Amino acid sequence: MTDPTGVAVPVFDMKHDTGSPAAPKASAHHLHIPIREALMVALAAGLGYGFDAYAVNIFGMLGPTLASDLHITMKTIGLIGSIFLAGYTIGTIGFGILADRIGRKDALGWSIIIYGITTAAGGLTSNLALFTGLRFLTGVGGAGELAVGAPYTAEMWPAKHRALGTGGIMFSLYSAGYIVAAICAMLIVPTYGWRWAFGFAIVPSVAVFLLRRMVQESPRFKHAQAEIAEFEKTEGVKQKRESIWAIPGAKRRIFIGWMLYTANACGYWGISVFLTTFLVQKFHVTPHVAIFYAMMFYVVQFFLSYVGTMLSDAIGRRPAGILGAVIMIVCTVIASTTPSLDVFLVFGAVMVGMLGWLWGVSDTYLSEFFRTSLRGTGFGIMVGGGRFVSIFVPYLVGWGISVVGPTIPFLATAGLWILTIIGYMMGPETAGRELEDVQL
Question: For the whole model, what pTM was predicted?
Answer without folding.
Answer: 0.89
